[in-house]
Each structure stands twice: as C-alpha cells, then as structure tokens.
Amino acid sequence: MKQAIYQQIITRKRTGKKSFAVLIDPDKVDASSIQELVTLAVAANVDFFFVGGSLVISSHLDECIQQIKASCHIPVILFPGSPSQVSKYADALLYLSLISGRNPELLIGQHVISAPFVKKSGLEIMPTGYMVIDGGAPTTVSYISNASPIPADKSEIAMCTAMAGEMLGMKLIYMDAGSGAKRAITETMIENVAKHIDIPLIVGGGITEPEKAYLNCKAGADIIVVGNAIEKEPSLIKDISAAIHSVAIVNAG
Fold first, then answer.
1. Which CATH architecture has domain 4-252?
2. Spatial separation of the C-alpha atoms in residues 187 and 173, rounded to whole Å
C-alpha cells in the first residue's frame, strides 16, 4: 500500500513542522476560482489541498482535481462526504470512520460498500478517525450523519474517543467543528487530545483568522484545515499559512 503522503505528514510532525490544508468544495468553485486558490496557495507555501464536501452534488470532482494537479505540485487529498466521492486523480484519500457518532453506517457500513472501488482506485488510503465537535451551529455533516457532535466543553470525551481511534488502528485523527461553525474547537480540547495520542491530529471548522490557526497549532494540532473562511476571503490564505508555519520556527528555536 502506498504511504508517500502519510510519510510526509509523519515526517512533518516528527520534525515539529505544522501543516496547512486548504479545503476545496467542488460544489462551490469554478475553473477561475480554482485557479485563484491554486495561485494563492503556491505563493503561500500551502502544504495540502483537501477536496470534498458533505454532499458534492456537482459532477466535476475529477475536473476540479485535475485542474489543481495541472497547476501545481501541492498534494491533493480527498476528504469525502460519501463513498461516491472518490477520484483516481487525487494523491490520497482520508478513509473516514465517524468514531464520534454511533451510526454504524458511517463507522463501517459505507466502507464495506465502497471498499472494492476504493481499492481499485489506486489511491493512497489513510484510515482516519473522524470526530465531529459541536461548533455552535447545525452542520451538514451532523445532519447527514444523523449523529450528535461531541459537546464543545467535554474534552475528556474527545480525548478518550481519539485514544480509542488510535488503538483501533486509525492513522490520523480529524477533529472537525464543521463547515460554517460559529465557534472553533477550543485549545483546551485540542491540547487534551494531542497529549494522549501519537498519531497526527487534524483540526478544522470555524477557523476564520490567522491567530486562531496559530493557537490551535500551539495547542497540538498538526494540520489545520480551512475552507469556509477562504471561500469568502481567498486572500486569507497568505496570512493563515504564515501563522501556521511560524509555529514550527518558534518550536525549532
């Protein structure tokens, strides 16, 4: 099984380097906006593109990824909202298991159905423990998953959930407050989770400013994912990327 992207993530974690992933929802972009995002991302030294969404009702997932790949060398990682969101043109796939919920379909059911197609895709598969955290507003992922998010002030539940995910063999933990969250995940929760797992921690949802991204990294996040804020203000890419990457410089010193 290919592990090039995962090894890159692991190496960055071991050397204290924080990573920035720009999330692109294929439903919300066209060719010109993709090109703008890619240009800004390359200039800002963005580490990864995550591509996907809770629904993806459009049919141009492949075209979206192909355009990104043709325009830069930034790795493209699929962040699928359903088993149909698989594209052979990406570099890797976050194979998400919703470990914060109790919906068996999203713990293993959908994976059984998608496994032959995913295997055939040739993508690098990264088993990911996906944890939805209450961000103060109903999100598409909560509705689609029919699962209650972990309360924002229950960091011990998040910690135990992440520990269980790691011991079950997940290679990554992804804590997400959801697209359009009113509040981001607290530094207290991030720190509590990060202290108790050895695998890389991805954090996203509700991050709208560079300072929050910086503080999340300081608390223990290894990869920061921003999508909604960048959709509204693409120029944020530069400042958020600088904030995230400055943490590694501070740690190294």
1. Alpha-Beta Barrel (3.20)
2. 16
